[in-house]
Amino acid sequence: MSPNELQALPARPDNLTSMVFEAIRDSIVDATLAPGSRISEASVAAQLNVSKTPVREALLRLRHIGLVESTQRGLRVVRPSVKAIRDAYEFRAGIEGVAGRYAAHRASTEEHEHILVLAHTSLEHAEQHDGEGFRRYDRKFHQAIAAATHNVILQQSIEDSLVLTSALRERDVAPSGDSASCAREHLVVAEAIRAGNPDVASKALTEHIHHVMSLVLSARPVTAQPADAETASVGAGTTA
Fold first, then answer.
1. How far is Cα 71 from Cα 75, in angstroms, rounded to an integer?
2. pTM over 0.90
3. In this structure, what is the dihedral angle of CA atoms 130, 21, 162, 36, given to the nearest 10 degrees?
4. CB atoms < 10 A from the CB of 100, how many?
5. Conformational region of residue 232, where left means phi above 0, alpha means psi within -120 to 50, and beta covers everything else
6. pLDDT-flagged residues of the chain (< 70)
7. In whole angstroms, what is the distance from residue 103 CA to residue 106 CA?
8. What's the CA gap between 156 and 168, in Å, rounded?
9. How far is CA 35 from CA 27, 43, 165, 228, 235, in A?
10. What CA–CA distance (Å, rounded) separates 214 from 33?
11. CA Rg value for the chain
């Protein structure tokens, strides 16, 4: 497989669009689709061995999330940018602060306990220096709070925000190595939600994400790609 080329998908299940979305997202994260490279809908479809419809749907979501952007020549992968990372985390802090407030009001007893278990599990993995395990339970923790709002629009917005911050962080920033402090903040949030204290839950969750943002931004400077990166492409040409 040559650079900038995606692996063909093995099947066409009912969740094909989700599989295409994940394949493109992962290729952005691992830089198979290089920052600044243009994306041809037809070429991606051919490489994944699917029709253009699920590719179009996946690219629309990726554009909405912020991992691809429109240019006069079609779509391209977003380039590394300190501002992009800051904007993504600031937006996430805002909506998750709201989620913490609603979860404290609306979460059931079962949801309280589930959120608390996920917080403890994320800390266990962090203290064991299991980065992959921590990231898995960190994501589950934030998703559980979003679900506990019982607001599907807010929940989807948080899921999209998690996709964006995770992708930019994995692609553009060196690991910070401070997951234990973040996991301990999970416990503060979880206890506030269980106590039904919306002000504390909202404040703790907002401050937690701002803390993560500060760690990410201080881990390694992020610089934009050279101007000629835009000339690289996946199946040269605009989106078909």
1. 6
2. no
3. 100
4. 28
5. beta
6. 1-4, 8-14, 176-177, 220-240
7. 5
8. 19
9. 10, 17, 15, 11, 15
10. 27
11. 19
